[in-house]
Every structure is written in C-alpha cells, then in structure tokens.
Amino acid sequence: VSATIPELERELVAAARRLAGETAAAEPTANRRAAPRGRWRLRGSRRRGTGALALAIGFVLAAGTAAAVLSQRGEVGGEPTRGYGRDAPEADIGVHYRTRPVVIATGRLPDGEPFEIVGYQQSSPAGGQDLCIDTQFPRRGEGHGCGSNSGYAQSVSRGPGHPTTVTGATTAETRRVLVHYRDGEQGGSVEAALELVTDADVLTRIQVDEPFGFYVAELPEGARDIAVEGIGAGGRVLWDAVFPGEVDYLATKRIRDPYLRLKR
Amino acid sequence: MVYTEIADHVLLAAVGSDPDAFGTFYRRHENRVLRYFLRRGATPELAADLTAEVFAAALVAAARSEPGGPAEAWLCGISRRTLAASRRRGRVEARARVRLGMAPVELTDESLERVLALEAQDAAAAALDGLSNLERAAVEARVMEERDYEDIAKELRCSEAVVRQRVSRGLARLRRQLERRKQ
Hints:
The complex is a heterodimer of chains A (264) and B (183).
Chain A: H1 6-26, H2 51-62, E1 102-108, E2 114-123, E3 129-137, E4 142-147, E5 155-159, E6 162-170, E7 176-183, E8 186-191, E9 193-197, H3 200-205, E10 212-219, E11 224-231, E12 237-242, H4 258-263
Antiparallel strand pairs in A: 1-2, 2-3, 3-4, 5-6, 6-10, 7-8, 7-11, 9-10, 11-12
Chain B: H1 8-14, H2 20-38, H3 44-64, H4 71-89, H5 95-100, H6 109-129, H7 133-144, H8 149-156, H9 160-182
C-alpha cells in the first residue's frame, strides 16, 4: 500500500533514522539491551549528548513549517475554494507562483452571489514578480484575474448571456464605490460590493505594505460608458475613473497603427 | 524490510533499530489522521501540515516510551492536542518537527490530488449515510461495486426496474446533499 503523501513518509523515515543514530550514539555499547524478538531490540534511553545540537539544527530547518495559518478554505487567510495548482498555469512560459494564492477578502454581490478575492505574487518571464488579484465566484465555478492593488478601473468582463462585471482597487479610506453606466438610452448606477483588505497577516503573505480595497460590481449585459467613483466616510467623492470603452480604431482621428491606416 | 501483518506496538518498538518500520506505521494510519483534520474543516494542505506534526510527535514519543493502548486512540489524542495547540497559537504547531530537524514537506500535485480525493470520499460516504437502506444498498452495488442491474436485482430480490429506480433516486439525493454541503 503506497502512502497518500509519500514525501512525508520519506521525511519521517529519515527523521526516524536520525533519531535511531542519535540514540545509538548516546548509548554505551555495553548498556544496549538485547532484541526481544528476532532482530528488534528495545529502544534505548533518551538521547542527551547530541540533543542541543540537533535542536539547534532542527529549529533552523523546520522554521518554515510553522507559517501556515489555521483558516478554512474560502475564508480570509485560507486557500481559495476553487483550488489553485502547485504552480501557475503559465509555468511552461516561465510564470510561477511566488507566494501561495490566499483569500484576501470575501463578499457577496447584491443578489447574494458569494465571491472571493484571491491574492498572490507571481513571477514574470522577464524577471521580477507582480501582485495578482483574482476575483472568484466559487458557486458559479468561474473567476477572472489578474488585477492589482492599484488602479481604480481595472477590468471589465463581458460576454453574450453574461452580466458585465467590473473590478478595481481602492484606497483604504474608500467606504462606498458607485458604478455608473449607460444601457441603451438609459443611464444607471449600482453600488459595488467593496471589500477592504486590512488583515496584517494576509497583507504580509501577499507582500503588500498598505491596506487597500477591492470592489466587484455586476452591470446589465450591454452596459457601456462605465465610470466609477469612490466615496469616503463623509460622503465626499475621493476619486473617480472611467473604464475604457471598446475602441473604434477606424473612427479615431489619431491612428498610429500603420496597418489600420492602410486599411482606412 | 516489509512489514504488513505486524502489530502497531511491535512496529513502534522496532523504530530504534529499523527506521523503515515507522514508514509502515505511517502508511497504516496516515489517512485516519488526515481525515481527522479534513473533517474539522482543514484544507488539504493544512491537514497535511498538521498530520506531519502528529506523526513527528508520535515518533518522538515512541522513541521515549511505548504508547499505552491502541495506536488509533493514541494518534487521535495527539491529533486533538496538536489541533488545540495550533488553534491556540494561531498557527500550525511544529515543535516535534523542529525537535526532529524535519524539513518542511512540499506537497506534490499528485499528493494534493490524493488528499482531495480522500476529502471527496469522506463527503460521499457521509452522504451515503443519509440514504435509506434500500437506496444505499442499490447505489453501493451499482456505483461502487460496478455490478450489473440483473445481478443486483437477484440479490435484493426485486425487479431490475426497481433497482434502477433506487439507484436513480439515491444518486439524485446524493447529488443534492453534496451540493448543499458545498454551499
């Protein structure tokens, strides 16, 4: 029968081997007891001489194992409900997780749909690393990314048969986020689900120094001309931003793309 | 050396002279310990981390003295104490691993999949308990033992149509239970 986690079995057997070696070294040969059955012998007395050294080495080796925090899957500080692999899906092109994806905030859309904001550091093929923030809808089994902790208007996700989803980051002082849009001839506004990321442990794990906010809003399927504004505690507008619309290159006066200029 | 039918206390007693004996002891009990943590809401990686600490503590304790009583109860006690200490400290207890100089275990994708499968099996088993005896017998025979309807009908002394109906209803109920559990 093979182990569920063979790498742990190997580590434990190696530890048992070290322990047996220590025990044997600590026991004077004359005092070793005979094996009770066949080749087995009783364990010796507790090791003493090498204990302090083993403890010191062990502390250095195992310090990293204490990092996991007791949080449940799908909760702030825990693993995302939708599993992330051991490495990034783009590992074959040199993009790797530099920190484990962790739930940095959770919330619900006005219709009750739960979402998880997931953060992690990811390497870039050119070198260095960047923060990635994904928005996951575990109940729907879908999600999108990767955003950042800066940029008020970050992403617009749209498609036939789907609501238009917008996301962005805010300052920690932002208390409400209003999203304005145009749907046909009608204008509309919705309040985004805003979650503040303030947990010190979570911020440390995604290697971000300052608390920030992240919002998610769902608009009607055909929403366009989307703008967003952040409102502070006193009701004052702290910032605003516009989501870039679908660009009609041919209608643009300043066309720099030679292919499009030729086509025109 | 291959240990298969050897009692737990003998395996633990042999660790001093043959460290592989602890590997056998680990394989025999690892799923029980992993399940202990998974059922208490730990993620697969957290369950693996806690399990590593439990077996490290078991190894340290076994080197000092023979555990009294069955190994299952002994490991359950260590698991309970490890979980309580970890909750108290807000992070996974690592004292025994520090003591043994164990390197942090990085789960491979395959191991992670196996732990996830263990979690799924548990969920399915718990959901099976929620079925009536007749539905459970039909689902177990058809889905888990992969027997054909004719054979099951003979054993359960009913028609094939009845077996099909029980399997269908049982699976629908299981699906609903698992969906509720996911939410």
